[in-house]
Design goal:
single chain; alpha/beta; Arc Repressor Mutant, subunit A; Rossmann fold; 2 domains; six-stranded mixed beta sheet; two-stranded antiparallel sheet; 15% strand
């Protein structure tokens, strides 16, 4: 499932939940730029999946159309299949990477990220009998999987053998930025999924790390 399709599904779901949603709140919910949120809305309007109603001179109302509901259903089923394949692929890749580490006693593993891929990485660690020693993300300070989310700067004070970059689309870019910040490249593990046609955007990955660290 392509990244664009996942985002279109997220937009359709957001509009169905709240027809008064604004472009700014949509961008924030999806974690994308305002201009990109506007682009997706325009694209879905053009496809006939969303109807845009001008209720006031400065206020737009977004309504999901019957065709939009049908497309959301189709994408939802596709996303379920994608997620199952993704889980199996991530689990297989991480198992192959983690088993030699466990045999060598290298079991202090940190996870970078707080999204869907991070949950998959966490489950894979648990299957190997490993609890992560830290959760790292640009949005530090919150809680994820029962742990306090730390910043990249906190890694220097963390005793870890490996760090899993749990990103489905920007793993290589995030890895390169971590290396630039002093993390040993040999300690970084990527989730090497080969599913769908997700696009990796280097600039986006670097910006995510820079923005909050």
């Amino acid at each position: 499932m392509k990244l664009e399709e996942r985002r279109e599904l997220a937009v359709l779901e957001a509009v169905e939940r709240d027809e008064q949603i604004t472009q700014r709140s949509l961008a924030s919910a999806l974690g994308i730029a305002l201009g990109l949120a506007n682009l997706y809305l325009k694209r879905l309007v053009k496809k006939g999946y969303i109807k845009c109603v001008n209720v006031r001179s400065n206020r737009l109302l977004y309504l999901i159309t019957p065709n939009g509901i049908g497309e959301k259903t189709r994408l939802t089923y596709e996303f379920i299949d994608y997620s199952l394949d993704l889980y199996r692929g991530v689990r297989k890749n991480l198992k192959a990477a983690l088993e030699p580490l466990v045999q060598s006693g290298l079991t202090s593993i940190a996870i970078y990220g707080t999204g869907e891929a991070s949950e998959l990485a966490y489950l894979s660690l648990r299957e190997q009998g490993i609890e992560p020693v830290a959760i790292i993300d640009v949005a530090a300070g919150g809680r994820f999987l029962g742990m306090t989310v730390q910043s990249v700067a906190d890694l220097s004070a963390t005793n870890y053998d490996r760090i899993i970059v749990a990103s489905l689309d920007n793993g290589e870019a995030i890895r390169d930025e971590l290396v630039r910040r002093g993390v040993d490249r040999d300690t970084i593990l990527l989730i090497l999924h080969k599913l769908g046609n997700s696009v990796s955007t280097s600039n986006e990955g670097r910006e995510r790390v820079r923005k909050h660290t």
